[in-house]
C-alpha cells in the first residue's frame, strides 16, 4: 500500500547557466541553520571542487538536505535538495538526477528571462511529470522585468506541452544574494516564502514501504573512509544497515552484496543511519565497482528499475600518450596503461562520456557532450598528474536509415550589438548556419537564433568574442542529427608556433599577444615548433615567445 511521506520533499534546482542556483542553495542552507553560529562559510559552498570554484560554474550535480518546521503542523520536514549545473555541456547531470526528485525549482533570471538551457532542463522536468515552482531570481537587478519574464516562462511551459497542473505553477520572486523571497515582487526579509512554497507545491513522495527494496544508483560520491558511495532515491521498501542486497549490473548480472554503510544527507554532510525508508535519498558505501544506472534490490525479489537514459555524445577527440620532446616532464602518470585506467574509471560517474580503444594501443577515443565537457575532463586529469596529448575535437557523424550521413546540429542563441551583427551573421553563414530568428532589441542589441552544425561551432567561441569585442553572449543547445551540411572551411584559424626552444618571457609574449590568443603565460618551457596560441590569420605564425628584452640600441634615432 502506498503512503505519503509528508515529512520529506525531494527537489532539484534547475536553470540556465548563472541564473543563481548555487547562490540560492547557500541561502537555503544558511536560513535552515545548517551552519554553526559564527562558522565561516565560503560563497557558493556547493561548488566544492577546485575547478568549479575557479571557473565559478557548477559541473557536478550535488545533494544536500535541510530540516525545517512545517508551519501548519509544527513537525520537522526534511528537504533533499539537488543543485545542478546550468551549462549545456553538463546537461547529462541534470537529466539523470530528475529521477531522484518529485519536483523542481526552475530559476529564471529576472532580467534575462528564459534562455536556451532553461528550455532544455524544463523539458526534462516536464517529461518526468514533475511539478515546478518558478523562481524569478535576481529581483535586485536594475533591468529586472519580472512581468515579462513570468509571461515568457509561462509561454515556454505551454510550448513544451506542460499539463494543466504543471502550467498552473506557483511563482516565487527572490534575491538569492540577499537571501530574500516573496510571493509578489515585494520581497520578505528572508526566504520563508520559498520554504513554504516548497512544502505546499512540491508533492511529498508516495511510496510503498512494505514492498521489496529498490534503489536506482543515480550518482556516485566519495567517502573518506568508505571509498566510492552509491547515491539514489529508495523507490520502494527500505534498506537496513548490514542487510543483504542484490546488485543488478547494467548487463543484468545479479551480485550478492551487503548494505554495510548507510547514510542520508544532512546539510553539507552525510550522517550514518541504521535504515533508510522509501521516498528518501540514501547513500550506500562499500559496493566495490558500483556504477550509475545499476539497481540495488531485495535479494529475494531482485527487480531492475528502468535504466537512466542520457543523450548521446556529439563531440570527440583522441587522448594519447605524450610524444612531444617534453614527454614525462609534466606529470606523474604518462604511460598508456595509466591513461587507460583513468579514462575507463571516469566512465563510472561521467555518464554522458564514452571511451573507446583504438587500433593504436597508446590512443583512446573520448566522446562527450561538447567542447567544455571534454575540456573539463582534460583539466581535471592534468591536475591529478596525468600527462597526455589530445587531438582537435571533431563532431561525431552518424549514418541515417537510408545510408545518408547525418551530423549533429546546435541551436545557437546570440546577443550582440547592432554594429557587430553583420560580422556575426557572416561568420555563421560560412559555417553553414541557418538563421531561425533575428530580433532587434530596444537597447540597440540584436538577438539571433541559428541552427548550426556542431562541426562549424568547434573553436568558434574565440572568433565570436573577437568579432564582438568580447561583448557578445552566446549559448548553444544540442538540437539533433540532420543531413550533413557539406564542407565547411575548417582552418579559419591558424596556430602561433614557438620559434625556438626556451622559456617564455613577458616580453616575447607581449609581442605575440597582439596577433592572437595565447595558451601559456610567462615562465613556461616550450620546444621549437610547439603550438602556443591561435591566430585568425590564414597561415601559421612563428613567434619568438622566449625573446628577452634587449636595450634598444637605436633609440637615439627615434
Ligand atoms: N544581482 C544578483 N546576482 C545574483 C543573484 N543570485 C545569484 N547572483 C549572481 O549570479 C552569478 C551566478 O550565480 P551562481 O549561483 O553560481 O549561478 P548558478 O545558476 O549556480 O550557475 P551554474 O551552476 O554555473 O549554472 C554569481 O555571480 C552570483 O553572485 C541575485 O539574486 N541577484
Ligand atoms: Mg551552480
Structure description:
The chain has 558 residues and is α+β, with helices and mostly antiparallel strands. The chain has five domains: 2-204, P-loop containing nucleotide triphosphate hydrolases (Rossmann fold, 3-Layer(aba) Sandwich), CATH 3.40.50.300; 208-297, Translation factors (Elongation Factor Tu (Ef-tu), domain 3), CATH 2.40.30.10; 315-395, Elongation Factor G (Translational Gtpase), domain 3 (Alpha-Beta Plaits); 398-483, 2-Layer Sandwich (Alpha-Beta Plaits), CATH 3.30.70; 494-556, bipa protein (OB fold (Dihydrolipoamide Acetyltransferase, E2P)). The protein contains 13 helices and 36 strands. Strands 10, 11, 12, 14, 15, 16, 17, 19 and 20 form a nine-stranded antiparallel sheet that branches. Strand 16 (261-266) and strand 17 form a beta hairpin. The chain is globular and about 80 Å long. The mean pLDDT is 89. The structure holds guanosine-5'-triphosphate and magnesium ion (MG). The site of guanosine-5'-triphosphate has 22 residues, from helix 1.
Amino acid at each position: 500500500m502506498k503512503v505519503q511521506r509528508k515529512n520529506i520533499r525531494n527537489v532539484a534546482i534547475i536553470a540556465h547557466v548563472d541564473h543563481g542556483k548555487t547562490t540560492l542553495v547557500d541561502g537555503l542552507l544558511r536560513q535552515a541553520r545548517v551552519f554553526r553560529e559564527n562558522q565561516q562559510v565560503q560563497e557558493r559552498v556547493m561548488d566544492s571542487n577546485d575547478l568549479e570554484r575557479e571557473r565559478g560554474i557548477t559541473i557536478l550535480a550535488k545533494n544536500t538536505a535541510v530540516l525545517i518546521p512545517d508551519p501548519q503542523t509544527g513537525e520537522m520536514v526534511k528537504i533533499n535538495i539537488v543543485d545542478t549545473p546550468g551549462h549545456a555541456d553538463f546537461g547529462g547531470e541534470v537529466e539523470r538526477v530528475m529521477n531522484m526528485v518529485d519536483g523542481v525549482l526552475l530559476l529564471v533570471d529576472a532580467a534575462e528571462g528564459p534562455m536556451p538551457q532553461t528550455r532544455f532542463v524544463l523539458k526534462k522536468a516536464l517529461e518526468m511529470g514533475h511539478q515546478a515552482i518558478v523562481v524569478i531570481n535576481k529581483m535586485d537587478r536594475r533591468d529586472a522585468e519580472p512581468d515579462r519574464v513570468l509571461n515568457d516562462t509561462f509561454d515556454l511551459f505551454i510550448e513544451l506541452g506542460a499539463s494543466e497542473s504543471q502550467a498552473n505553477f506557483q511563482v516565487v520572486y527572490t534575491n538569492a544574494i540577499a537571501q530574500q523571497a516573496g510571493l509578489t515582487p515585494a520581497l520578505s526579509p528572508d526566504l520563508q516564502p520559498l520554504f513554504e512554497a516548497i512544502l505546499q507545491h512540491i508533492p511529498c513522495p508516495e511510496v510503498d514501504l512494505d514492498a521489496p527494496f529498490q534503489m536506482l544508483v543515480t550518482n556516485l560520491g566519495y567517502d573518506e573512509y568508505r571509498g566510492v558511495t552509491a547515491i539514489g532515491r529508495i523507490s520502494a521498501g527500505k534498506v537496513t544497515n548490514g542487510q543483504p542486497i542484490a546488485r543488478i549490473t547494467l548487463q543484468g548480472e545479479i551480485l550478492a552484496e551487503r548494505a554495510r554503510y548507510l547514510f542520508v544527507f544532512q546539510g553539507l554532510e552525510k550522517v550514518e543511519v541504521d535504515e533508510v525508508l522509501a521516498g528518501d535519498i540514501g547513500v550506500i558505501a562499500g559496493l566495490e565497482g558500483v556504477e550509475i544506472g545499476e539497481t540495488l534490490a531485495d535479494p529475494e525479489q531482485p527487480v531492475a528499475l528502468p535504466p537512466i537514459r542520457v543523450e548521446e555524445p556529439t563531440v570527440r577527440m583522441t587522448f594519447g600518450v605524450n610524444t612531444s620532446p617534453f614527454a614525462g616532464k609534466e606529470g606523474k602518470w604518462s604511460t598508456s596503461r595509466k591513461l587507460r585506467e583513468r579514462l575507463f574509471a571516469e566512465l563510472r560517474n561521467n555518464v554522458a562520456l564514452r571511451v573507446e580503444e583504438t587500433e593504436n594501443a597508446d590512443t583512446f577515443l573520448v566522446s562527450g557532450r561538447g567542447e567544455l565537457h571534454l575540456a573539463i575532463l582534460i583539466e581535471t586529469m592534468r591536475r591529478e598528474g596525468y600527462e597526455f596529448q589530445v587531438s582537435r575535437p571533431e563532431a561525431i557523424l552518424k549514418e541515417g536509415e537510408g545510408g545518408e550521413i547525418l551530423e549533429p546540429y546546435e541551436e545557437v542563441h546570440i546577443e550582440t550589438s547592432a554594429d557587430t551583427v553583420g560580422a556575426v551573421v557572416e561568420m555563421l553563414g560560412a559555417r553553414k548556419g541557418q538563421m531561425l530568428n533575428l530580433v532587434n532589441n530596444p537597447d540597440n542589441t540584436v538577438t539571433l537564433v541559428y541552427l548550426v552544425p556542431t562541426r562549424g561551432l568547434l573553436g568558434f567561441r574565440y572568433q565570436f568574442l573577437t568579432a564582438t569585442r568580447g561583448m557578445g553572449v552566446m549559448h548553444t543547445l544540442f538540437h539533433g542529427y540532420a543531413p550533413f551540411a557539406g564542407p565547411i572551411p575548417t582552418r579559419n584559424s591558424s596556430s602561433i608556433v614557438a620559434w625556438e626552444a626556451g622559456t617564455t618571457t613577458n616580453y616575447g609574449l607581449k609581442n605575440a599577444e597582439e596577433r592572437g590568443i595565447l595558451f601559456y603565460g610567462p615562465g613556461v618551457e616550450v620546444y621549437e615548433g610547439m603550438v602556443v596560441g591561435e591566430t585568425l590569420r590564414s597561415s601559421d605564425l612563428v613567434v619568438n615567445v622566449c625573446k628577452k628584452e634587449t636595450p634598444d640600441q637605436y633609440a637615439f634615432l627615434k
